[in-house]
Amino acid sequence: MKNFTLHSHYDVIIIGSGPAGLGAAFKIAENSNLSLLLVEKKKISSGGLRNDCKQNYTFPVGFPYEHWDKKSAEPLLREVAEHLNPKIESRVNVEKYIKRAEKIGVEILAIDQSHVGTDKSSELIRSLLEKLEALHVNIALQTEVKELSEKAKELSLENGQVITFNHLIVAPGRADYDWLQEQMNRLGVSYCDNIVDIGVRIETKEENYPIVRDYYDPKILFPNKVRTFCTNSGCAHIVREKYKGYYSVNGHSLSKENERNDLVNFAMLKTIRLTQPVVSGQQFGKILGEMVMQLSGGSVIMQRVGDFRMGSRSKEETFNNDLYDFEPTLKSAVAGDLSLCMPAKILRDIWKALKMLDTIIPGVLHPSTIIYYPEIKTYSNKPQFINDHFMVKEGYYIIGDGAGTSRGITAAWASGIRAAIGILDKR
Ligand SMILES: Cc1cc2nc3c(=O)[nH]c(=O)nc-3n(C[C@H](O)[C@H](O)[C@H](O)COP(=O)(O)OP(=O)(O)OC[C@H]3O[C@@H](n4cnc5c(N)ncnc54)[C@H](O)[C@@H]3O)c2cc1C
């Protein structure tokens, strides 16, 4: 990236170079001469754009209904596609699965998707940043915003430098929810957080889940707010992500040029909306994650379906026996007992959904299938927005997964466009 000296003032500053920040940056840079600074604390933006990078181009995937409808999302999805140039995956032979699903009250959504792959995504991000630089955007990587001022339109960086702005777009993603909460407290913006997705990640042989040969990331909706999420195949791996106080599992896959390992992984998530007196989904998720840390000696747990069905814990010495004929890709997971660490209601709903899935795609509950836990998605500090452009206070916009305006790459990018339009309209 080009070297430059940070100015003391910008018309617009964007915090976070995830898809939400990038969407806003492109919209503003391509449609105005406003001076623009994009600040990112990491070397390269984190999140899904950097990992796997599956892009969904069909509403409502990734778009929370409270902020979006088909009419508002679709034109912006077209704009996202102009920048990300997706190669839409083919989707064939899914009718038989859809019919089977319908019979038992399950819905399979037909979604336009593309997949970049973890090994290719940093190339994509670099090319996007270069395009922004060519549009005269200042990009400060490895530069952390420490805090926003409650008194003036200014922010301070970790190194002590203070920069003023006319408009600020805050797009820090969901991992930094507590930082965002602090800033909203400083600005006097009210917010609530009450939704969390808790679930498991399934790993099995591709032959046990052949639907992925026809539909890369099948979006399947089960009763009780359980759904499949983020399916990976080809050269697929499970990873452990560090959050504050716990680990969550996640999955990704490499691009098609890589040697296949013939495994599939996908999440089964249940959305939980907490009501009074407990209102923090983020805290609830953290407590569940911490409990797994206790029970696994500081990691995440995994259990074979065969053991789970028998009500016995998986053990290290039995994990690869007999029918258990493939090795887990997440070596740091600890063989254990799912039912000891998961709240009964969540476990019941997810297990029921898995049985339904096994009816639609027989084989997925083969005894060797591994269930990893926990996969926790904390979402939003839902700020109180004062207009349709996600403005929370004159000149301040909060967008992306951290603000609950999106749940995925394309919707996050679209949120950025919407905030940017708010700023462009004000000129
Ligand atoms: C491992 C993984 C895989 C995923 N895979 C997919 C996928 O395949 N498809 C999909 O649609 N979604 C995926 N997701 C979800 C997707 O990443 C998010 O929906 C999307 O990235 C949200 O965009 P965002 O811009 O709101 O936040 P983010 O992408 O999280 O970006 C926020 C950025 O802000 C930076 N930041 C935070 N605080 C500060 C600060 N104080 N100063 C400066 N910078 C700061 C962070 O470093 C980060 O780069 C995945 C998520 C993860 C974690």
Q: Helices, strands, pairings?
A:
Elements: E1 9-15, H1 19-31, E2 36-39, E3 54-56, H2 70-84, H3 95-103, E4 107-109, E5 113-115, H4 118-134, E6 138-140, E7 145-148, E8 154-157, E9 162-170, H5 177-187, E10 191-192, E11 195-205, E12 219-222, E13 226-232, E14 236-243, E15 246-253, E16 263-273, H6 281-296, E17 301-304, H7 305-310, E18 334-335, H8 338-341, H9 344-360, E19 370-378, E20 382-383, E21 391-393, E22 396-398, H10 409-425
Parallel strand pairs: 1-2, 1-9, 2-6, 9-22, 17-18
Antiparallel strand pairs: 3-5, 4-12, 7-8, 8-9, 10-20, 11-16, 11-19, 12-13, 13-16, 14-15, 17-19, 21-22
Helix pairs in contact: 1-10, 2-10, 3-9
The chain binds flavin-adenine dinucleotide.
| Radius of gyration based on Cα positions | 22 Å
What oligomeric state best describes the polypeptide chains here? single chain
Bound molecules: flavin-adenine dinucleotide
CATH topology of the largest domain: FAD/NAD(P)-binding domain
Number of helices: 10
